[in-house]
Specification:
The structure is a homodimer of 366-residue chains. Chain A is α/β, with parallel strands linked by helices and 366 residues long. Helices cover 42% and strands 18% of the residues of chain A. A six-stranded mixed beta sheet of chain A has the order 10-7-13-12-14-15, with helices on both faces. In chain A, strand 8 and strand 9 form a beta hairpin.
């Protein structure tokens, strides 16, 4: 039924952690666990792969101190819980795991931040992903509309073939929280590119205007900063199906970061950038130049916006000429705009004029 | 293709507003528009129907004052825009309409609050719903999993038959923003009740545990305070299909309000409570009593929680014995709990023990 190899590998690697601790104790040593340092100074931009990654600096979590000993104890409980889930074919939200620890006595977490952090540590040490541990976030997957056919293996192990245009309602196909190969595979694709859209309003606009058909593209709703499953879905579309991905967001510093996290990875998930990032993704807009060229309705930048833009000027992900110019232009005019501001020219404008113009300029459509 | 009668009726009623203004001008009167007062004092709880409604107090918006004249002008532009959309078979988000007004010169809105408010005014005056005007919010519809078959008329007018368990992935069926009869109808139903769930984590838990099959129910994800389309979907399931709806939320004052808005309507949408509210909906938990009986992990009430609970004690929606006791118990113990806190007893507990016990107690299952 399911492809269990990924889970098997996760169990093996988790078992190895427990064995190492056991051996240290057996040899009369005070046990410790070595993990990469998760400080900002240990994150570097991998120019070759074009994504964020952790550097080589490591730190040891040792049982010499009370706090370190408690973390090792928690690690052992968590290893056990994950193995149990894999055995039972269950999964759990990060929130549920936090509550599960109520039964772990001295190893009980005092806040969910702690249990989330430990789950990330285990990802780093094992080079597996949280999904391999059957742990998932609260966040919802996004929606997809377009002529792509996927095979989803459902909770009962049954394979369902779903065309994300013909077999779903106008709300589209909902991306599940796990989009790894054993859960989801791509069967057929008849599209020239994918467009990842920040807001639900704009996603529904492109659906209503039939842009997926007229421009032969797959529409993906990001829901703001996209969930891991959404980024992984795009990465796989890009890599396995060779589909060009473009991002279409609001024109402000936070939306620029949405694009950066899709294309280059985010600091928080630097240890799995290679799984999540789509370095080939391009930004279609809204740019600062668009605000000027299309005379869009704007809002003034807030102090926080200005700070964020200034921080982006020193961020290696924004160091090329395009981003430097756009960020400086935005700072200069002191204005931002939303993607829905294109409605100023009517409901058709975005699909009849703006996107065709911009996508032609970028060479995505001819 | 589409059942256009609802839209026709909306156009007729909107035209009537314009005609009345025109007649007043024609007779040399200063034009005005009469609308129910939207103050808290003019909202009353309709005991017979069990929902919130506006009272009989009205106010006049007259062109005597600059601001009133501007609002009447905006009303005319908006009437025109809505008629245009209905003619073109388009729809628009409330945000888009705000931007559309950029082209309305003196009638341009200065904030989206103003355009949203006017859309609500038109709902009240015409007794139509925003959906009849082709206006929709940004908010996403929720997800559904269970053995109910719906017919959705898609954007091209094609009727699609979708079973919300067999024809969708594990993420379920996404409720579209319009669930009126011309868009969505119920074809078949094989379930004993529907359970409306506050958090995505708990929805996915019940899906994974197969509760829709083992308990013969339809699972509906509320996503916090539910969107209008979600409330309307439940209302129709309850009324047209005779399905009992129960709500399953966190145990805190804000979640109690989620239940109240489902069962009795919300103040903001008091003018359409009869369309949105499901007075037959019952609350399964988490109650204050559950926190005690099941010894759930808790958090302390914040000052805002305490204020909200105290306000609920004077809210007519919470005036029966059950709610009075639960609210007072919660205030007394000064604690709240999340629905996922049930994970303290393992991932199966909610479906093997908690829900069966509570639903049996309520007489929903036997």
């Amino acid at each position: 039924m399911r492809d269990e190899r990924r889970y098997q590998r996760a169990v093996e690697r988790l078992t190895k952690i427990a064995e190492e601790i056991y051996e240290q104790l057996d040899q009369g040593q005070i046990p410790k666990m070595v993990i990469p340092l998760r400080t900002k100074s240990n994150i570097r931009f991998d120019l070759k792969k074009g994504v964020w990654k952790y550097g080589r600096a490591t730190g040891a979590r040792t049982a010499k101190k009370m706090r370190g000993a408690q973390m090792l104890l928690r690690t052992m409980y968590m290893l056990d819980f994950i193995q149990e889930m894999i055995k039972e074919n269950k999964s759990s939200t990060l929130r549920e795991m936090y509550y599960i620890s109520e039964g772990w006595e001295k190893a009980k977490f005092s806040a969910q931040d702690e249990s989330n952090m430990l789950a990330e540590d285990l990802e780093i040490v094992t080079s597996c992903m949280r999904e391999d541990f059957k742990l998932r976030p609260e966040e919802d997957g996004a929606r997809v509309m377009g002529n792509v056919t996927i095979i989803e293996t459902d909770r009962k192990g049954k394979k369902k073939k779903i065309n994300c245009r013909d077999d779903v309602g106008d709300s589209g196909y909902s991306i599940p929280y796990n989009v790894e190969k054993e859960k989801l595979s791509f069967k057929e694709l008849d599209a020239d590119f994918a467009i990842a859209i920040e807001t639900g309003g704009m996603f529904d606009r492109l659906v209503e205007n039939g842009f997926d058909e007229s421009a032969r593209c797959v529409l993906i709703h990001l829901k703001g900063q996209p969930a891991r499953s959404t980024r992984r879905f795009m990465k796989r579309l890009s890599e396995e199906m060779g589909l060009q991905v473009v991002t279409f967001t609001d024109g402000d510093p936070w939306s620029f970061r949405i694009h950066a996290s899709i294309a280059y990875g985010a600091i928080k998930t630097a240890h799995i950038s290679e799984y999540l990032a789509t370095p080939a993704a391009e930004f279609v807009g809204i740019t600062a130049t668009d605000i000027l060229n299309y005379e869009l309705p704007t809002d003034k930048l807030t102090d926080r916006d200005v700070q964020a833009l200034k921080a982006e000027l020193t961020d290696p992900r924004f160091k090329d000429h395009f981003w430097k110019t756009e960020i400086e232009t935005m700072l200069e005019m002191n204005k931002k705009a939303e993607q829905q501001a294109l409605a100023k020219y009517g409901l058709e404008y975005v699909t009849s004029t703006y996107l065709p113009e911009k996508l032609t300029e970028m060479g995505i459509i001819t």
